[in-house]
Amino acid sequence: MRRSSMAASHAAEASDGVRDGTGTEFDALWRFLIESRFLYPEKLASIQLAAVRATLTTLLAQRSRLFRTLLLFGDGCIEGHVAAALAYRSTFVIQHLAARSRRSRTGSRSCA
């Protein structure tokens, strides 16, 4: 294995696992939501993309008391996503839950 390939492989492994989604770029998350089929054609047709982009970009920019997002990474790619909103003083309601299917993990995919 070439040195640059070894370094890239190590970097991907180091970034794998569950982590806070704060700071995630909108385009990377959006691409994952489409590839995981969380966003299907009918849902995409009804979404006002500019408004969603503005809202998610703001929510992902910094930690919030009202919003949490967790991402699961594998091979340096987003494999799962959970977003939750604070509903009561200490209770979060899961808003989104998306995961890449096992079948699509082995196929082509784009990663940020």
Explain what you see.
This protein has 112 residues and is α+β, with helices and mostly antiparallel strands. The chain has five helices and four strands. It has one domain (3-101): Aminopeptidase (3-Layer(aba) Sandwich), CATH 3.40.630.30. It has helices spanning 3-15, 26-35, 41-46, 49-61, 102-106, and strands at residues 17-20, 67-74, 77-88, 91-99. A four-stranded antiparallel beta sheet has the order 1-2-3-4. The longest helix has 13 residues, at 3-15. 12% of the residues are buried.
Features:
5 helices; Aminopeptidase; alpha+beta; four-stranded antiparallel sheet; disordered N terminus; 112 residues
What topology emerges from the helices and strands here?
Layout: H1 3-15, E1 17-20, H2 26-35, H3 41-46, H4 49-61, E2 67-74, E3 77-88, E4 91-99, H5 102-106
Antiparallel strand pairs: 1-2, 2-3, 3-4
